[in-house]
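hey team, just a heads up i'm posting the complex here instead of the shared drive bc the drive is being weird again. everything in one block, sequence lines first with there labels, then the predicted structure for the whole assembly after. its two chains so it's a bit long, scroll down
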Amino acid sequence: MQQIFNFVIRNKTFLLFLLLFSIALALTIQSHSYHRSKFINSANFLTGGVYGTMNSVDQYFNLKKENNILAEENKVLRELLFNKNSESDSTFIDSTFSKDHYKVTVADVYKNSYSATNNILTINKGRNDGIKEDFGVITSNGIVGIIDNTSNNYATVISILNTKSSINAKLKSSRHIGSLTWNTESPNIVQLEDVSQYAPVKVGDTIETGGESSIFPKGIGIGTISDFESDISGDTYTIQVKLFNDMTNLGTVYIIENLNRSEILNLENNSNE
Amino acid sequence: MNNIIGINTIRFFILLLVQVMICNHIDLFGYVNPYIYIIFIFLFPIKDQRLILLLTSFILGMLVDIFSDSGGVHAASAVTLAYARPIILKSSFGMLYEHQSIKFSATDIGSLISYISIGTFIHHSMLFSLEIFNISNILLILKKTLFSSIFTIILSVLMIILFSRNKK
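-- predicted structure starts here --
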């Protein structure tokens, strides 16, 4: 017993190092698996407060650019509105059965990140605003990511610039689907993998969300094809997609809640059993 | 004694805030960021307080991790640097370290640069191998380590020289 105590006292520095290092290592390993980083994340009171102060200063430098983006978006929405009116004249909508499928919340990006391999954003809306895990996040240009952790007033978003993220997407010209991943090389380019070789892939075509994941609505723009090549096996294409969004400059984002999500998930679970 | 504790506490919080509010968002050439919070570990008093140094560097690393959503990579690499510090000190300062009489504001610049370079390199290689966590991306790890190390070393040496002059 005496010898054990002596050993501990003699090697106390090394033992403390070992203890602290294994705690840190455990947290690292945990953070590398999807939806597991529960303890160490920036959706909390302390970091939210600091990033909030920083953001309120930072916002003033981007006001002009932000105004231009909003004006541009207003133009698009107005066009949509006018065009929709003229179309819906001829079709009859039964208001008893028509119901909103998506709810949209506006949020500010408090912390953006695009240079690491697993990029995570922090936004200023949380559980108090009805934000939950697995809601989609977009800007007026295209998709940004998926909500990961939430606290009362803040939430973290797994960016599409994250090796863990994989989002369902499809070609706009046809219905061929693939999954969107990132190879960490450039913050403007993501990869669309596992696209069938029968798909009519052309440089310059648009890629949009597929609507199969029940997170994003169908038809939200992602980017354009800048390059593509066949896989080693020759069965599938890997497509380089140039994003519509400038992921290095995000201000205001929209959080999308699919109101039918629980129903869809239930149904899928039931049919899997 | 109180003075030393006070200076180190203030340095702890200032370096943490500068790191998470400015240095994490520089992104030179798209991905190069300096990690200047390790100056705290470099400048920690030399006298035999290794347990306190280990604990404080762990907490500092953990706080940087929380701010940058990176799991425990900064904590792990900061603890490694804190544990390896006596060896680096001995190799760069030699006899001065044996006598426990190093004053960072008064040492010659060559030893200071070699001390900071070795420490930064150890910290950064640990940091990026844990952050990327994939042996097949070894080139990316080396590239990030090299460029970030250069940036951190330049900034750290400049800051140490700049701020230690004032106290004279």
